[in-house]
Design goal:
The complex is a heterodimer of chains A (452) and B (310). Helices cover 44% and strands 12% of the residues of chain A. Chain A has 452 residues and is an alpha/beta fold. In chain A, helix 2 crosses helix 13. Chain A is globular and about 75 Å long. By secondary structure, chain B is an all-alpha fold. Chain B has two domains: 35 residues; 238 residues, MetI-like (MetI-like fold, Orthogonal Bundle). Chain B is 73% helix and 1% strand. In chain B, helix 3 packs antiparallel against helix 11, helix 11 runs antiparallel to helix 14 and helix 13 runs antiparallel to helix 14. Chain B starts with 10 loop residues before the first helix and ends with a helix. The chains are: A alpha/beta (452), B mainly alpha (310).
């Protein structure tokens, strides 16, 4: 076989042509939604009448066809698509799991900068900020007819400037969990949960003394960096005491005098927690101590019911969170999954209809049986109530009757503001410094952030 | 490529041929360089220029166009908490650089000896460098976990009260430095080992004949001959030390009270959590300027003796 030698010049020609082609290929426009960085993208793009079209949804894990439990979730996922197809038979929706919280936000910012953002985005805590920036499309017109059936706390995190930017997919809220074995071991009756903070403090003290280093009265998740895990639970107590840390205009209100009794309560209850556990950054390890018999009481999310059983605690008990003397029953939504339409969506109308499909009764009724989470419409919760387990009843009751709050949504520098609040909480829980001084200092720092 | 010049002919013709050959060479050079120049421009030069421009603007990166605000973003780096963040970065970088380089040098000298299991030791020191930061941070955190960490277990065994390491700024700073040194020392060890193996044995043998002690040989032979490698390790180490990110993110989240927060983490948070691309870009520029300044100073100081000797 004769091999023809390639001259250096020919090689250069071929190489440069190849490089140029590769460069051109790399520079060609990628398929995907229009960039959301345009000044006035707005809805109103022409909706294909006959042609099929695709909506891209950065969705919660359950929607992802690559999910390892996709077969289990299929009935729910199929039902949502079926409801949507009734409105848009030519549309397909591609669900992609792009992570949650920090990872999701990082991916979203990158995609918006790169012009590859999806049509619909899932989330929990950043919609007010993005709504104010004009990155989301208001959906008030699309939820007008169903609004009365939605639990207000479940979409409150997407309401800003008088407009609603998101629709809830499913939700959860905080309740109160107790390990009856530990309570009994301390000589107390586990069948009646503490009703007030005073009851809780008393029982936690009795249990801790009886435990003598073996078990303790309470689990408290403390602050770490700018993580909001601990603040989520603190927010329940703040809500019960009507002690807001954010003013109506969104400005931080860390020195609200109404918060001081709450912080005093936290300082006191922290005395009855396993040593070192409060500041453990591993949330899973913090809350599993109750299942292991190290702790008697804790605030819990609705997912704790299964978690306790899987951890070997079959008789965990659930109730509403104890309230302060002059307080009111209140809770905070958590695991609260909201979907919103990006203002740069190619198909805004269809996208808005897609996210409202999740509120259809047929879909909502499958949330709890398929995924173990809580539906977010009154009708679905009411239908679920009679057949739900005793444990789930406590959470359904909270969702239907308690005043449901959300975590404050900072419009500016959320990381710096949560860091300040967490540092203040650290001071409360680890020193004896006067609390009014600590909150005053935190307010001063927050003012500096807001003025910068 | 060899240039063929006609052996005979008129000078003007020869000149033309020479010029033509030069033009061809230039053209070929550009063709060869074009792909890499394009790559460099798209992925390095353009982002740096864009970053420089954005650093003078207010821009959320989500919507709208950047709005020119002059030096405002840079001025924020002169106010808290950014002053503390820069201080932390310098502190971590300084400690990690000095101790990591010194430790790597000493370990490399030891690993260069004829000892049994030398290959195994060499591999072991490199394992933390090869392992993902998320894993090594978990391992390190197992020591300082406030609830069931190794250190608190030891304190309990000794009948002492436990310490909440994570809310003590000084302890957390120390842990982050120790962790970073442990994780990063493998790279410099390999580089120092390679350099040590390049020193001829005859040099040491001659010194021994002259009565030099082990310390003399280390100080007067090994150290000076490794100087170019020390410069390289110091500069790359400095850049690496300034880029401490995972250790802080995974172990302290920047807390308590920003006392362990570093520039890279804050740049990330400003960009992706606080949606302030202008401030994040200014942070990147400040970091680049600091790194450039330190690298030039380092090179000058370290090469001063070298140049004099040359």
């Amino acid at each position: 076989m004769s091999a023809k030698r390639l001259s250096r010049r020919d090689f250069l020609k071929v190489a440069s042509a190849g490089a140029a082609m590769a460069f051109l290929a790399a520079c060609q426009t990628q398929p995907g939604p229009d960039p959301a960085v345009d000044d006035d993208p707005g809805p109103g793009d022409v909706l294909p009448a006959d042609d099929t079209f695709e909506i891209v949804h950065w969705a919660e894990g359950i929607m992802d066809p690559d999910n390892t439990n996709a077969d289990d979730y299929k009935p729910y996922v199929d039902q949502v698509h079926e409801v949507f197809r009734e409105k848009f038979p030519n549309a397909t929706v591609t669900a992609v799991n792009m992570g949650w919280d920090e990872a999701l936000r990082q991916n979203l910012v990158t995609a918006l900068l790169g012009g590859t953002a999806p049509d619909v985005i899932v989330g929990e805590n950043f919609f007010q900020q993005y709504g104010d920036l004009g990155a989301l499309m208001p959906v008030d017109d699309y939820i007008q007819d169903i609004k009365d059936n939605l639990i207000p706390g479940t979409y409150a995190a997407s309401v800003t400037g008088g407009q609603t930017y998101g629709v809830n997919q499913f939700t959860g809220c905080f309740g109160f969990e107790r390990n009856p074995n530990v309570i009994e071991a301390a000589g107390l009756d586990p069948s009646e949960p503490p009703e007030t903070w005073d009851d809780l403090l008393y029982e936690a003290e009795v249990i801790t003394e009886a435990g003598n280093g073996e078990f303790y009265g309470y689990t408290l998740q403390g602050p770490v960096g700018f993580s909001v895990g601990g603040i989520f639970r603190v927010a329940v107590y703040l809500k019960q005491a009507s002690a807001e840390i954010q003013q109506e205009d969104g400005y931080p209100w860390f020195d609200n005098p109404a918060t001081i009794p709450v912080l005093e309560f936290l300082r006191n209850i922290n005395e009855f927690t396993p040593p070192g556990l409060t500041f453990n950054p591993d949330e899973g390890q913090v809350y599993s101590q109750l299942f292991l018999g190290v702790s008697a009481y804790q605030i819990c999310g609705s997912w704790h019911v299964n978690w306790a059983k899987e951890s070997g605690l079959d008789n965990a008990m659930y109730s509403g969170v104890p309230i302060p003397r002059d307080g009111r029953p209140a809770s905070v939504v958590v695991g609260n999954v909201i979907n919103a339409v990006l203002s740069g969506s190619r198909y805004p109308e269809a996208s808005a209809e897609w996210i409202t499909s999740f509120t259809d009764d047929r879909v909502q009724d499958l949330v709890n049986p398929i995924y173990g989470r809580m539906p977010s419409t009154r009708s679905a919760l009411t239908r679920l109530q009679p057949t739900a387990t005793e444990a789930d009843q406590a959470f359904i009751n909270e969702l239907l009757t308690a005043d449901l709050g959300i975590l404050p949504q900072w419009r500016k520098d959320p990381q710096r503001l949560w860091t300040i609040y967490n540092d203040m909480l650290t001071g409360v829980l680890s020193t004896n410094s006067p609390i009014d001084g600590l909150v005053g200092q935190a307010q001063q720092q927050a003012d500096d952030v807001m003025e910068s | 490529m060899a240039i063929t010049v006609p052996a005979s002919g008129a000078p003007a013709e020869r000149k033309r041929g020479l010029r033509g050959a030069r033009r061809r060479e230039t053209l070929e050079a550009w063709i060869i360089l074009t792909p890499i120049l394009l790559y460099f421009s798209i992925f390095f030069l353009f982002p740096v220029i864009a970053n420089f421009y954005i650093s003078f603007t207010r821009w959320n990166g989500i919507r709208g166009r950047p709005e020119w605000i002059g030096l405002t973003n840079y001025l924020r780096y002169f106010r808290p908490p950014y002053t503390m963040i820069i201080t932390n970065t310098l502190l971590f970088a300084g400690f990690v650089l000095v101790f990591q380089t010194a430790l790597a040098f000493l370990i490399a000298v030891l690993l260069n000896q004829e000892v049994r299991g030398r290959g195994l030791y060499r591999a072991l020191f490199y394992v933390p460098t090869l392992t993902a930061a998320a894993v090594t941070a978990q391992v390190a955190f197992a020591f300082i976990s406030p609830y069931d960490g190794v250190l608190n277990a030891a304190l309990k065994m000794l009948g002492q009260n436990i310490v909440i390491w994570t809310i003590n700024a000084n302890w957390m700073r120390a842990f982050i430095i120790i962790y970073s040194i442990w994780r990063g020392v493998g790279g410099p060890i390999v580089l120092f080992l390679a350099a040590l193996q390049g020193i001829h044995r005859e040099v040491y043998e001659a010194a021994m004949v002259d009565g030099a002690s082990g310390w003399d040989m280390l100080w007067y032979i090994t150290a000076p001959l490794l100087k170019p490698m020390v410069i390289f390790v110091m500069i790359t180490g400095m850049i690496g030390s300034f880029q401490i990110f995972e250790a802080v993110l995974l172990m302290s989240g920047g807390g308590p009270a920003n006392r362990t927060n570093v520039m890279l983490l804050q740049i990330y948070n400003d960009a992706f959590v606080n949606t302030n691309m202008g401030l994040a870009s200014a942070g990147s520029m400040v970091m680049a300027i600091l790194l450039l300044g330190f690298s030039i100073t380092n090179m000058r100081i370290m090469s001063r003796g070298q140049v004099a000797k040359d």
